[in-house]
Amino acid sequence: MIGIETLATILAVALTLALVLAAWRMVRGPSFADRFIALDMLTAVAVGFAALTAVATGRGAFLDIALGISLINFVATAAFAVFLERKQREES
């Protein structure tokens, strides 16, 4: 059976790969929407890291951090959607 430390290491590597790929898309993305989706993915990876840290250390405070990050991300996504809608209306 795989130990919790080994599993945490495997998950950390997978999250790091997702972090690198999302950061690459954020830098290279051709449009604002691509870059913002990459930022959304980066925050999702941050939530994953916080949850993984909570499981690995046994401290529930990291889940509060994950919740805070996800709430900020939700508000930012809604604000960006309004921004894109206004921008599209002005171009029409």
Gross geometry? elongated
Q: How many separate structural domains?
A: 1
Helix content, binned percent:
over 70%
- What is the name of the CATH class? Mainly Alpha
The helix-and-strand class reads mainly alpha
- Identify low-pLDDT runs: none
Through-space gap between termini: 60 Å
SSE order in H/E notation? HHH
Number of β-strand runs: 0
The CATH architecture name reads: Orthogonal Bundle
| Strand proportion | under 5%
Query: pLDDT average, as an integer?
Result: 91
Major sheet characteristics? none
Radius of gyration, in angstroms, nearest whole number: 16 Å
At the third CATH level, what is the topology name?
Answer: Helix Hairpins
Q: Helical stretch count?
A: 3
Please provide a written account of the structure.
- It is a multi-pass membrane protein.
- Keywords: Cell membrane, Membrane, Transmembrane, Transmembrane helix, Transport.
- The chain crosses the membrane at residues 6-24, 36-56, 62-84.
- Belongs to the CPA3 antiporters (TC 2.A.63) subunit F family.
- It is found in: Cell membrane.
- The chain is mostly helical.
- The chain has a single domain (4-91), classed as Orthogonal Bundle (Helix Hairpins), CATH 1.10.287.
- Helix content is 89%, strand content 0%.
- The chain has three helices and no strands.
- The protein has helices spanning 4-28, 32-57, 61-91.
- Helix 1 runs antiparallel to helix 2 and helix 2 (32-57) packs antiparallel against helix 3 (61-91).
- The longest helix has 31 residues, at 61-91.
- It is elongated, with a radius of gyration of 16 Å.
- It starts with a helix and ends with a helix.
